[in-house]
Design a protein that fits this description.
The chain has 367 residues and is of the alpha/beta class. It contains ten helices and 17 strands. Strands 1, 10, 11, 12, 13, 14, 15, 16 and 17 form a nine-stranded mixed beta sheet that branches. Helix 7 links the parallel strand 7 and strand 8. The radius of gyration is 23 Å and the shape is elongated. The chain binds pyridoxal-5'-phosphate.
């Protein structure tokens, strides 16, 4: 089979999504399945829909389009603030978008009017992580404006934590979100449908048994795909952590000294090599590099250590000889998953079908 490739076990993804949908539902919360690490893979999106997510969220409108065109049927949500230059695309391919800028919201209203469509706006609130979000004191004027703009409806309020600064979702910031929603409803006489509390980093808060308040939606990507929570990257009990496996092929295998010969300057990526003298080692090269994967996000099988990576070479040492033409399988983290799924050099192969949905046969796919 061709390498490098990501082997994707759809049945594990389906089971992870089902587990998390059930868990959230027990707290009165719906799950938006986040597909942004998957380049709009219709098979993965379909597994999430079969598991009962209430909608699909992606940060790229192109991915939403890919999924819809492949026949995936679910509410489509753009979870990054739209580029103004993409307003027409956004109203065509997203039912809802997350927003933080009035000029963009106005452009969406105009685009929706031109297209004869209604577009839903979720306003994102800044609650401390300092990535996207309107300062809480300014939300009211945004709501006022939206209520006056044609072809737009206020679909909800949301927040995002833990992504830029690692701010932990807790009782305090989640209560602040709930309070904001209640205050807006009372003061402005609006009904706020979606209250989206955050991402996979919210699972700790969700499971800690604290008061859920008004939150009725969370957006889950990494926890569904990799079975881990992103605050400490610990496995979530009951979930599969090995739905994705990266396979690379050996192209050189030799006994080499562990120490380089000559004067050392910068490496290909501007770093300083820090070799350790361990005598002669079994050193192999795998045909995969930074163009394909984040080498820091690979977890090698036992007996194999990753030494270095350049654009196209992954250098490993091992306690046994690796045959040229043979393959090595790695577990991956979110960063490696993202790069692997979006690299044109990495094949995506679905190894385990599941009973429901579009994909009932194992399939080979380049997209
Ligand atoms: C990426 C992202 C998510 C999903 O985050 P995970 O940690 O993968 O669950 C949710 N919301 C927004 C706004 C995002 O950008």
């Amino acid at each position: 089979m061709s390498a490098p490739r990501l082997e994707i076990n759809l049945s594990k993804i389906l089971q992870n999504a089902e587990y998390l949908v059930r868990l959230a539902r027990n707290h009165g919360i719906a799950v938006t399945g986040v597909t942004k690490a998957c380049l709009g893979s219709p098979s993965i999106a379909d597994a999430l829909v079969c598991a009962g997510v209430s909608g699909l969220g992606d940060s790229r409108v192109e991915n939403l389009k890919t999924m819809a065109h492949a026949g995936v049927s679910a509410p489509m949500i753009l979870i990054r603030s739209p580029m103004m230059s993409q307003a027409d695309l956004v109203v065509r391919h997203a039912d809802i978008s997350f927003n933080t800028e009035l000029d963009v919201i106005k452009a969406l209203s105009e685009a929706a009017r031109r297209a004869g469509r209604q577009h839903g706006v979720v306003l994102m609130v800044e609650l401390g992580d300092l990535r996207e979000g309107i300062m809480p004191g300014n939300i009211e004027e945004f709501v006022h404006e939206i209520l006056q703009l044609p072809n737009l409806r206020l679909a909800g309020i949301g927040t995002n934590l833990a992504c830029r600064c690692g701010v932990v979702p807790d009782t305090k910031n989640m209560t602040a979100l709930s309070t904001l929603v209640t205050t807006l409803e009372k003061k402005l006489g609006v009904i706020i449908g979606i209250v989206s509390g955050g991402n996979s980093a919210n699972l700790h808060w969700l499971m800690s048994g604290c008061h859920i308040g008004r939150i009725n939606d969370i957006r889950l990507g990494e926890s569904i795909l990799l079975g881990r929570e992103p605050l400490h990257r610990t496995p979530i009990p009951g979930l599969h952590t090995s739905a994705f496996t990266l396979v690379a092929e050996v192209i050189e295998s030799k006994i080499k000294p562990s120490m380089p010969t000559g004067t050392l300057a910068q490496t290909a990526f501007g770093e300083q090599a820090t070799p350790r003298n361990t005598g002669n080692v079994v050193q192999s090269i795998l045909a995969i590099g930074r163009q394909d994967i984040d080498p820091m996000g690979l977890h090698a099988p036992s007996g194999i250590d990753i030494l270095d990576a350049s654009s196209d070479h992954l250098i490993v040492s091992s306690d046994h000889f690796l045959k040229v033409g043979g393959e090595v399988a790695f577990q991956i983290d979110y960063s490696a998953l993202l790069r692997g799924m979006t690299s044109p050099y990495v094949r995506r192969i679905f190894t385990k079908p599941y009973a429901l949905g579009l994909s009932t046969q194992p399939q080979l796919s380049a997209a």
